[in-house]
Design goal:
Layout: H1 5-40, E1 44-54, E2 58-63, E3 69-73, E4 78-88, E5 92-108, E6 111-129, E7 132-150, E8 156-158, E9 162-172, E10 177-185, E11 187-188, E12 197-198, E13 201-209
Antiparallel strand pairs: 1-4, 1-13, 2-3, 4-5, 5-6, 6-7, 7-8, 7-9, 9-10, 10-13, 11-12
Amino acid sequence: MKFSKLAWAAAAARRQSLKGLVLGTALTIGAAFSAQADDSGSSFRFLVGQGLTYGGDSLIKAPFSDGSERVFKAGGLAQFYGGGEYRLGDKIALQATIGYHINYAKASSDGNVRFTRVPVDLLALYSLADNVRVGGGAQFVSHPELKGSGLASNVSQAYDSTVGAVVEGEYLFSPHIGLKLRYVSEKFKPSNGGSSVDGSHAGLLFSYYF
């Protein structure tokens, strides 16, 4: 899974352009929410969160020093994010977040494999009760890349940026702490061509609102 220098340059340029577009969109939405918050006084709030995800096709089997192998899934493993929420009345809220999603395995004493990407979520949530809400939206994924180091340095695969669909439910333990259970449907297409990889996954995420 190696690219020519020309292919790598073209892929890098595309990823950089898409990453800039996604980040610019998220910042623009955040600025708009913040401006609205200045007028309403309490409709906007920031949030940060993290959680675990699982699912998707196998990207590679990572070898361990003891001779065993671990199936490396496209939908794992840890996600970190931050952003903002704007409330439209008592029932509806809009969320925009940008994050970092990584699956990581230490292949041996001198090597590791990781699959990284930058997700931007744009969601609408509806409150069924004071502490329960459901919703969904879109996830824009920038710069998906499978990369190895050390003994796994021959592992190198970039994927095109993609768009997926999100559905989720959230339980609010308090106005500041929420637990999300979600499902994301998405696919990753190799930048050098080939069959798409299913990155669909379930996730359990904790959010803190302030």
